[in-house]
Design a protein that fits this description.
mainly alpha, elongated
Length: 196
């Protein structure tokens, strides 16, 4: 009868059994299902867990630094700072030197620009002066212009003769000795052929 009594009256569940059935088994079931779903989607759960564990502050594996280690680190940082300060000073001196060179080049450019302006003005004055000389030879009689041109240097004479009007040129060449007229005609022709 003792056996039948045990079967008819089941013993009440203990607290531990209730905890296992109500809390622990459902939590384990949820974890297993979640792992299966995440694995099926291609997520590596263990790598994610490991990366999260590395970034948590309470999982840091480093030992607290001792005072000696901190002093060594501080000294090393001071040396690095001094090296960087020396490098900065060197770069500053190099920058100052480059700035001086640039200023010198700018001054040289300004001087060359002013010289070019002076040459341009001189060239314009020379052109104006040459035009006045040409108009003077054109105003002169051929009889008076021919001997003057014969006494000039060949380059100057050819420059003047090639700039006067063709009618004036013909009159001046008429008043020259034939040998000189032929010489200047050849020089004018050579100059016009070389300038084309």
């Amino acid at each position: 009868m003792a056996k039948s009594k045990g079967i008819d009256n089941p013993q009440p569940h203990g607290r531990f059994q209730k905890f296992v059935f109500i809390v622990l088994i459902p939590i384990l079931f949820i974890i297993v299902v979640t792992l299966v779903v995440l694995t099926a989607t291609g997520t590596n759960v263990f790598e994610k867990a490991q990366s999260l564990g590395i970034h948590l502050p309470f999982t840091d594996d480093k030992e607290p630094a001792s005072a000696d280690t901190e002093k060594e680190d501080t000294d090393a940082l001071k040396v690095v700072i001094e090296d960087q300060k020396a490098e900065i000073a060197q770069l500053n001196s190099s920058l100052e030197q480059k700035t001086k060179e640039a200023d010198g080049l700018n001054a040289s450019l300004e001087q060359q620009a002013s010289e070019m302006e002076e040459l341009r003005q001189t060239g314009e004055e020379s052109k104006r002066s040459f035009k006045e000389i040409i108009s003077t030879y054109e105003a002169m009689s051929a009889k008076n212009a021919a001997p003057v041109i014969l006494n000039l240097k060949d380059d100057d004479a050819v420059r003047i003769l090639s700039s006067v009007k063709p009618a004036t040129l013909a009159s001046i060449l008429e008043k020259m000795p034939p040998a000189d007229a032929a010489k200047y005609t050849g020089l004018i022709t050579a100059e016009e052929g070389g300038s084309q």
